[in-house]
Amino acid sequence: MSGKTTIWLLGIVTAVVGIAGGVRRFSFAPADKAFYASERTLNFVRPGLALKILSAAVASDGTITATVRVTDPVGQPLDREGLTTPGVVALSFVAAFIPRGETLYTSYTTRVQTSPITRVSATQAGSDTGGTFTKTADGEYRYTFRTKAAPGFDAAATHTIGVYSSRNLNEFELGTSYASATFDFVPGGGAVTQVRDVIKTASCNGCHTQISAHGGSRRGMEMCVLCHTPQTVDPDTGNTVDMTVMTHKIHMGKDLPSVKAGGKYSIIGFGQQETDFSKVGFPANTRNCAACHVQEGPNAATQATAMYRPSRAACGSCHDSVDFAAGKGHLVQLDDSRCSQCHRPEGEREFDLSVAGSHTRPENSRNLTGNSIEVVEVRDTNPGQQPVITYRLKDGKGNALTPLEMTSLSFVLAGPTADYSAYWSEAARTDPPNPGGTATHRFARAIPAGSVGSFSITAEGYRNVTIDGPGREPVTVRDPLKNLTTTFSVDGKAAQKRRAIVSLAKCNTCHTNLEAHGRNRNQIEHCVECHNPTVTDVGRRPAAALPAESVNFSTMIHRLHTAKEQGRPYVIYGFGNTANDFSDVALPTDARNCSVCHVNNTERLP
Q1: What is the DSSP-derived secondary structure letter of residue 253?
Q2: In this structure, what are the phi and psi dihedrals at residue 71, rounded to the nearest 5 degrees?
Q3: Which strand (E) or helix (H) includes residue 358?
Q4: Can you tell me the distance from the alpha carbon of 461 to that of 480, in angstroms, rounded to the nearest whole number?
Q5: 121 with 104: CB under 8 angstroms?
Q6: pLDDT at 219
Q7: 419-460 per-position pLDDT tens digit
Q8: Any residues with CB less than 8 A from the CB of 269 and at least 6 apart, and which?
Q9: Beta bridge partners of 16
Q10: 70: how many CB neighbours lie within 10 A of its CB?
Q11: I need a labelling partner for 35 at 20 to 30 A (CA). Which of 72, 165, 356, 578 fits?
């Protein structure tokens, strides 16, 4: 029996004894392989991986060292060679610094990549190779880099060590665990005052769940920016992979001017694998810079206001049809020194040349106050009766509105809420106002005979508002009513709302402000009334394009968010018989992670 087997058997005994004494249960999601493992296996293997860099130094001769602690998720040390604990742990290190007076990293650890396509060679930031490990304690290792800091390196500049790692647990059918960590320090001593913290990892994880790349081991923005620096170029395409430029261009994707003009944006990476981002669609509006550059709340980055510092690289990454040197699409700009003279952080009016003004959407104008509705009463709700709803309208400042002051106003009657199967929409703009600021709408459609359970009524509508738009030209914008759904019983039993399956808050984590159909439909409770199991797009689909597609909410949303993975066309015909092709849509996270959208474990079968 080998020493490794003996140690592992002792570990199993320990795990068994621990279970008998009540060892803590591990918490895994259904998307994790460990979710399906036995408690005995979990207590022995303790799947997962955690890293912490304890210290780092750069000696006067340029030798770089870092000490890292490697543990499982409950803090127990791991043997990186997998001899005394389950799973080999591979560790890779990166060293970089921020030159004083600058904001971006320069990496010490680099390699030269030669393109087999262009025969061009390019220097790229990457991990160190050929370094040595020294074990300093159980689970603790000092790594000495083969790469050295250049002679005369600035010992007063901020230096950062990054480590990324994988723990191979395939022999236990538990896959591979990944982790990354970074450590900031000043080699000459003293506090770290210069950092790069433009976008928090938590902001990325809002859509991506766990932002990672290159197989999953590089995790977090703090790790990414150490290699994705201006010094790193893809020699196959000539594209920089600097984090600022690359991230902007990826998220613009299909909306890049160069792509709209017939080009493509791709990067050729490891193994000459090309990744084409030309069909990427940002789930929020591309002018909503604050979706990533969060300035308030727990995800706020200390340098989030960097979005207000214009530069040719940052601005040109999205506006990639501009040639600053030739004066194409912009005045000639040979450096960044004068950018902020015209493009201040924020101007005195919306839609001006400031950074904030240039990215303002008319729909987000501060001149739009919003509209609300209060339901005072719903009566005549028995089968065969025509429901009557009494309501009160207000603008965002609390001023009363009459139905006629709305540009559009409708009520949707739908039921039953157990699983909607029918709905009717009726215009309400001409409803007569009542004394006291209310109005009343009687449905022309009666609740069907024999109906049981609960039904609902939802208000939708908007007011057209003219604002002073870009170039001081007047722009008419819809100021929508926030949908309000009222549920009532049609058989005398307690009213039952439709079960909550997803939440708008979860949708808006990626979409920021989810709206559809001219901004009229803006609450999930309303979407599911019309997008019910009985509805298809047959009424708007040309005969030549049959068969029809279901627009049932569960079917449509699942297919829409996984269309690219399914590898088959997915087209829905909508208003004006317009074809909406979702065939290239893909979630920015693993589609198996159902809890990204679902609430209350509703992704599980009853």
Answers
A1: G
A2: -135, 170
A3: helix 355-358
A4: 6
A5: no
A6: 96
A7: 999 999 999 999 999 999 999 999 999 999 999 999 999 999
A8: 214, 234, 275
A9: none
A10: 24
A11: 165
d(CA 606, CA 604): 6
pTM assigned to the model? 0.90
Which pLDDT belongs to residue 6? 40
Among 344, 361, 345, smallest CA distance to 288 is for: 361
Instruction: At 127, list the tokens.
Output: 């991990």
Angle, helices 201-208/504-511, rounded to nearest 10 degrees:
120
Cα torsion at 545, 548, 551, 557 (round to 10°)?
A: -60
Helices assigned H by DSSP within 236-310: 243-252, 257-260
Q: Exposed (0-12), middle (13-18) or buried (19+): which is 6, by Cβ within 10 Å?
A: exposed
218-219/266-268 β-pairing: unpaired
**Cα 164 versus chain centre, distance:** 22
CA atoms of 118 and 563, how far apart (whole Å): 34
**The predicted structure's pLDDT at residue 604:** 85
| Cis peptide preceding 435, ω within 30 of 0 | no
Measured CA to CA, the distance from residue 71 to residue 46 in angstroms comes to 10
**12 band by pLDDT with thresholds 50, 70 and 90:** very low
Sequence-distant (6+) residues with CB within 8 A of 229 are 96, 104, 105, 106, 107, 125, 242, 243
Sheet containing strand 88-98, strands side by side:
106-107, 88-98, 158-168, 176-185
Of 517, 507, 430, nearest to 480 (Cα)? 517
Place of tokens 């080699």: 187
C-alpha to C-alpha distance for 48 and 213, rounded to whole angstroms: 18
Q: Which of 603, 425, 381 is nearest to 529 (CA)?
A: 425
Using the CB atoms, write b or e for 322-360: b if 16+ within 10 Å: bebeeeeebeebeeeeebeeebbeebeebbbebbbbbbb
Q: Which of 46, 53, 334 is nearest to 180 (CA)?
A: 53
Q: Largest Cα–Cα distance of the chain, in whole Å? A: 92
CA distance from start to end of the chain: 48
- pLDDT one-digit tens code per residue, 277-316: 999 999 999 999 999 999 999 999 999 999 999 999 999 9
3-state secondary structure 6-61: HHHHHHHHHHHHHHHCCCCCCCCCCCCHHHHCCHHHHHHHCCCCEEEEEEEEECCC
Q: Is 483 helix (H, G, I), strand (E, B) or coil?
A: coil
User: In Å, what is the CA distance from 366 to each residue of 5, 430, 476, 516?
Assistant: 68, 29, 14, 21
User: For 536-604, where are the alpha helices, taking DSSP H only?
Assistant: 553-561, 563-566
Residues 6+ apart with CB under 8 A from 435: none
> Residue holding tokens 């984590």?
509
